[in-house]
Specification:
Strands 1, 2, 3, 4, 5 and 6 form a 6-stranded antiparallel sheet that branches. By secondary structure, the chain is an alpha+beta fold. 53% of the residues lie in helices and 14% in strands. The two termini are 25 Å apart. The longest helix is centred in the N-terminal third of the chain and has 24 residues.
Length: 270
Protein backbone atom coordinates (compact mmCIF):
# COMPACT_ATOMS: atom_id res chain seq x y z
CA UNK A 1 0.00 0.00 0.00
CA UNK A 2 2.87 2.39 0.77
CA UNK A 3 4.29 1.99 -2.73
CA UNK A 4 0.87 2.57 -4.29
CA UNK A 5 0.30 5.68 -2.16
CA UNK A 6 3.74 7.04 -3.07
CA UNK A 7 3.01 6.54 -6.76
CA UNK A 8 -0.31 8.35 -6.46
CA UNK A 9 1.30 11.22 -4.54
CA UNK A 10 4.12 11.60 -7.08
CA UNK A 11 1.67 11.65 -9.99
CA UNK A 12 -0.67 14.04 -8.19
CA UNK A 13 2.09 16.47 -7.25
CA UNK A 14 3.51 16.41 -10.79
CA UNK A 15 0.06 17.07 -12.25
CA UNK A 16 -0.63 19.99 -9.91
CA UNK A 17 2.84 21.47 -10.49
CA UNK A 18 2.30 21.28 -14.26
CA UNK A 19 -0.98 23.19 -13.92
CA UNK A 20 0.75 25.87 -11.86
CA UNK A 21 3.66 26.06 -14.30
CA UNK A 22 1.24 26.49 -17.21
CA UNK A 23 -0.49 29.39 -15.45
CA UNK A 24 2.74 31.11 -14.43
CA UNK A 25 4.80 30.59 -17.58
CA UNK A 26 2.34 32.90 -19.37
CA UNK A 27 3.35 35.61 -16.90
CA UNK A 28 7.12 35.24 -17.26
CA UNK A 29 7.79 32.80 -14.41
CA UNK A 30 10.34 30.00 -14.68
CA UNK A 31 10.33 26.72 -12.77
CA UNK A 32 13.41 26.41 -10.55
CA UNK A 33 15.30 23.21 -9.79
CA UNK A 34 14.79 22.82 -6.04
CA UNK A 35 14.29 19.98 -3.59
CA UNK A 36 13.13 19.89 0.00
CA UNK A 37 15.52 18.98 2.81
CA UNK A 38 12.64 17.11 4.42
CA UNK A 39 11.97 13.64 2.98
CA UNK A 40 8.32 14.00 4.05
CA UNK A 41 7.87 17.14 1.95
CA UNK A 42 7.62 17.94 -1.76
CA UNK A 43 8.15 21.38 -3.26
CA UNK A 44 7.98 23.07 -6.66
CA UNK A 45 9.24 26.66 -7.03
CA UNK A 46 8.48 29.22 -9.75
CA UNK A 47 9.93 32.72 -9.91
CA UNK A 48 10.54 35.85 -11.92
CA UNK A 49 12.68 38.79 -10.82
CA UNK A 50 10.03 40.22 -8.49
CA UNK A 51 7.92 37.35 -7.13
CA UNK A 52 8.04 33.65 -6.31
CA UNK A 53 5.32 31.02 -6.03
CA UNK A 54 5.67 27.55 -4.61
CA UNK A 55 3.57 24.43 -4.29
CA UNK A 56 4.37 22.51 -1.12
CA UNK A 57 3.12 19.14 0.08
CA UNK A 58 3.72 18.14 3.71
CA UNK A 59 3.20 14.51 4.57
CA UNK A 60 2.65 14.95 8.30
CA UNK A 61 -0.68 16.72 7.73
CA UNK A 62 -1.37 15.87 4.05
CA UNK A 63 -1.55 19.57 3.14
CA UNK A 64 -1.00 20.88 -0.37
CA UNK A 65 -0.29 24.60 -0.20
CA UNK A 66 0.02 27.28 -2.88
CA UNK A 67 1.96 30.26 -1.55
CA UNK A 68 3.80 33.38 -2.72
CA UNK A 69 6.52 35.77 -1.58
CA UNK A 70 8.76 38.53 -2.88
CA UNK A 71 12.11 38.10 -4.58
CA UNK A 72 15.48 39.60 -3.65
CA UNK A 73 18.71 39.51 -5.62
CA UNK A 74 19.64 36.38 -3.65
CA UNK A 75 16.33 34.58 -4.20
CA UNK A 76 12.92 34.36 -2.45
CA UNK A 77 12.67 36.56 0.64
CA UNK A 78 10.93 33.60 2.37
CA UNK A 79 8.15 35.75 3.78
CA UNK A 80 5.63 33.32 2.37
CA UNK A 81 1.89 34.02 2.30
CA UNK A 82 -0.44 31.07 1.86
CA UNK A 83 -2.90 31.58 -0.99
CA UNK A 84 -4.77 28.27 -0.74
CA UNK A 85 -4.54 25.00 1.18
CA UNK A 86 -6.03 21.65 0.25
CA UNK A 87 -5.97 18.27 1.94
CA UNK A 88 -4.67 15.42 -0.21
CA UNK A 89 -4.33 11.96 1.35
CA UNK A 90 -2.65 9.54 -1.09
CA UNK A 91 -4.13 6.61 0.83
CA UNK A 92 -7.68 7.63 -0.03
CA UNK A 93 -7.64 10.41 -2.64
CA UNK A 94 -7.27 9.92 -6.37
CA UNK A 95 -5.76 11.59 -9.43
CA UNK A 96 -9.21 13.06 -10.11
CA UNK A 97 -8.91 14.88 -6.78
CA UNK A 98 -5.49 16.17 -7.82
CA UNK A 99 -7.05 17.43 -11.06
CA UNK A 100 -9.50 19.49 -9.00
CA UNK A 101 -6.70 20.98 -6.92
CA UNK A 102 -4.64 21.78 -9.99
CA UNK A 103 -7.64 23.45 -11.61
CA UNK A 104 -8.25 25.55 -8.49
CA UNK A 105 -4.61 26.69 -8.38
CA UNK A 106 -4.64 27.44 -12.12
CA UNK A 107 -7.81 29.55 -11.89
CA UNK A 108 -6.45 31.45 -8.90
CA UNK A 109 -3.15 32.29 -10.61
CA UNK A 110 -4.84 33.41 -13.84
CA UNK A 111 -7.49 35.52 -12.11
CA UNK A 112 -7.35 39.21 -12.97
CA UNK A 113 -6.62 40.26 -9.39
CA UNK A 114 -3.64 37.93 -9.10
CA UNK A 115 -2.23 38.95 -12.48
CA UNK A 116 -2.47 42.60 -11.41
CA UNK A 117 -0.58 41.74 -8.24
CA UNK A 118 2.26 40.28 -10.34
CA UNK A 119 2.31 43.37 -12.56
CA UNK A 120 2.38 45.69 -9.54
CA UNK A 121 5.25 43.70 -8.02
CA UNK A 122 7.21 44.12 -11.27
CA UNK A 123 6.62 47.88 -11.30
CA UNK A 124 7.57 48.10 -7.64
CA UNK A 125 10.80 46.18 -8.26
CA UNK A 126 11.71 48.41 -11.21
CA UNK A 127 10.91 51.55 -9.19
CA UNK A 128 13.12 50.38 -6.35
CA UNK A 129 15.99 49.71 -8.75
CA UNK A 130 15.62 53.18 -10.25
CA UNK A 131 15.12 55.12 -7.02
CA UNK A 132 16.77 53.03 -4.31
CA UNK A 133 16.38 49.72 -2.55
CA UNK A 134 14.21 50.77 0.38
CA UNK A 135 10.45 51.11 -0.05
CA UNK A 136 8.09 51.97 2.84
CA UNK A 137 7.56 48.30 3.79
CA UNK A 138 11.32 47.70 3.77
CA UNK A 139 11.73 50.76 5.99
CA UNK A 140 9.11 49.51 8.45
CA UNK A 141 10.89 46.16 8.76
CA UNK A 142 14.14 47.92 9.67
CA UNK A 143 12.45 49.32 12.79
CA UNK A 144 11.97 45.80 14.16
CA UNK A 145 15.58 45.98 15.40
CA UNK A 146 14.48 48.84 17.68
CA UNK A 147 10.91 47.74 18.33
CA UNK A 148 10.59 43.93 18.05
CA UNK A 149 6.85 44.05 18.70
CA UNK A 150 6.41 45.69 15.28
CA UNK A 151 7.01 42.37 13.53
CA UNK A 152 3.44 41.09 14.01
CA UNK A 153 1.94 44.48 13.14
CA UNK A 154 3.92 44.61 9.87
CA UNK A 155 2.79 41.10 8.98
CA UNK A 156 -0.85 42.02 9.60
CA UNK A 157 -0.52 45.16 7.47
CA UNK A 158 1.20 43.27 4.65
CA UNK A 159 -1.34 40.42 4.74
CA UNK A 160 -4.37 42.70 4.68
CA UNK A 161 -3.45 45.65 2.47
CA UNK A 162 -1.80 45.96 -0.93
CA UNK A 163 0.17 48.01 -1.53
CA UNK A 164 1.65 48.44 1.95
CA UNK A 165 0.22 51.64 3.48
CA UNK A 166 3.51 53.28 4.33
CA UNK A 167 2.22 56.64 5.61
CA UNK A 168 -0.68 55.15 7.57
CA UNK A 169 1.42 52.41 9.16
CA UNK A 170 4.25 54.79 10.05
CA UNK A 171 1.93 57.34 11.66
CA UNK A 172 0.05 54.77 13.76
CA UNK A 173 2.71 52.19 14.62
CA UNK A 174 6.19 53.73 14.25
CA UNK A 175 5.89 57.43 15.12
CA UNK A 176 4.57 56.94 18.70
CA UNK A 177 7.43 54.55 19.48
CA UNK A 178 10.03 56.85 17.94
CA UNK A 179 8.75 59.84 19.94
CA UNK A 180 8.89 57.83 23.16
CA UNK A 181 12.42 56.60 22.41
CA UNK A 182 13.69 60.12 21.69
CA UNK A 183 12.02 61.51 24.81
CA UNK A 184 13.91 59.00 26.95
CA UNK A 185 17.15 60.27 25.42
CA UNK A 186 19.25 57.11 25.75
CA UNK A 187 22.35 57.97 23.67
CA UNK A 188 22.84 54.42 22.43
CA UNK A 189 19.24 54.22 21.20
CA UNK A 190 19.41 57.71 19.70
CA UNK A 191 22.53 56.79 17.75
CA UNK A 192 20.95 53.55 16.53
CA UNK A 193 17.84 55.43 15.40
CA UNK A 194 19.87 58.17 13.73
CA UNK A 195 21.96 55.64 11.81
CA UNK A 196 18.85 53.68 10.77
CA UNK A 197 17.08 56.78 9.44
CA UNK A 198 20.19 58.06 7.66
CA UNK A 199 20.89 54.73 5.99
CA UNK A 200 17.32 54.20 4.85
CA UNK A 201 17.06 57.79 3.63
CA UNK A 202 20.18 57.25 1.53
CA UNK A 203 18.90 53.96 0.10
CA UNK A 204 15.23 54.86 -0.10
CA UNK A 205 12.83 55.59 -2.91
CA UNK A 206 10.92 58.87 -3.00
CA UNK A 207 8.08 57.60 -0.82
CA UNK A 208 10.49 56.28 1.81
CA UNK A 209 12.43 59.54 1.96
CA UNK A 210 9.22 61.52 2.41
CA UNK A 211 8.06 59.22 5.20
CA UNK A 212 11.38 59.62 7.02
CA UNK A 213 11.42 63.43 6.85
CA UNK A 214 7.77 64.54 6.73
CA UNK A 215 6.13 61.78 8.80
CA UNK A 216 8.79 60.60 11.28
CA UNK A 217 11.20 63.48 11.82
CA UNK A 218 8.54 66.17 11.59
CA UNK A 219 6.54 64.41 14.29
CA UNK A 220 9.26 65.49 16.76
CA UNK A 221 9.10 68.73 18.68
CA UNK A 222 12.03 71.14 18.31
CA UNK A 223 13.87 69.96 21.42
CA UNK A 224 13.61 66.26 20.47
CA UNK A 225 14.52 66.96 16.83
CA UNK A 226 17.69 68.73 17.92
CA UNK A 227 18.48 65.86 20.27
CA UNK A 228 18.34 63.37 17.39
CA UNK A 229 19.81 65.67 14.72
CA UNK A 230 23.44 65.13 15.76
CA UNK A 231 23.13 61.41 14.95
CA UNK A 232 22.03 62.00 11.35
CA UNK A 233 24.54 61.80 8.52
CA UNK A 234 25.27 64.94 6.50
CA UNK A 235 22.63 64.22 3.86
CA UNK A 236 19.78 63.67 6.30
CA UNK A 237 20.81 66.69 8.37
CA UNK A 238 20.51 68.83 5.24
CA UNK A 239 17.16 67.48 4.03
CA UNK A 240 15.53 67.16 7.45
CA UNK A 241 16.18 70.89 7.96
CA UNK A 242 14.43 71.64 4.69
CA UNK A 243 11.50 69.42 5.64
CA UNK A 244 10.91 71.20 8.97
CA UNK A 245 9.08 74.04 7.19
CA UNK A 246 6.33 71.51 6.40
CA UNK A 247 5.90 70.55 10.05
CA UNK A 248 2.27 70.71 11.13
CA UNK A 249 0.93 70.38 7.61
CA UNK A 250 -1.32 67.42 6.82
CA UNK A 251 0.16 64.39 5.10
CA UNK A 252 -2.62 62.71 3.19
CA UNK A 253 -2.69 58.97 3.99
CA UNK A 254 -3.04 56.34 1.33
CA UNK A 255 -6.48 55.39 0.11
CA UNK A 256 -7.33 52.28 2.07
CA UNK A 257 -7.79 49.28 -0.14
CA UNK A 258 -8.52 46.02 1.63
CA UNK A 259 -6.87 42.97 0.14
CA UNK A 260 -9.19 40.43 -1.40
CA UNK A 261 -8.56 37.31 0.56
CA UNK A 262 -7.09 34.30 -1.15
CA UNK A 263 -6.71 32.59 2.20
CA UNK A 264 -10.10 30.88 2.47
CA UNK A 265 -8.29 27.60 2.85
CA UNK A 266 -10.34 25.17 0.84
CA UNK A 267 -9.78 22.25 3.17
CA UNK A 268 -11.29 19.25 1.49
CA UNK A 269 -13.35 16.85 3.58
CA UNK A 270 -13.77 19.44 6.36
Amino acid sequence: MIIVADNILNKAFALISEKVEKALSQQGFTKQNVASDNSDEKVALFSNDSMAYSVVYTGDNNHLVLRSCGMTDEGPDNEWKNLATWLFDPDSDTIADAESIGKDFFEMLTATTQIKKVQQAKKKKKKNKDDGNADPEFLAKRFVSLFPELKDEIKYESDNYFPFRGVTFTKTSIVPRVKELVKKGNKKDLEKLGVLLSRQYGNGDIDTRSIITIVIINSLEKEDYEKLYEYFDEELQKYSKGARKYKGKTVKPEKIKKKKSFMADTLKNQ
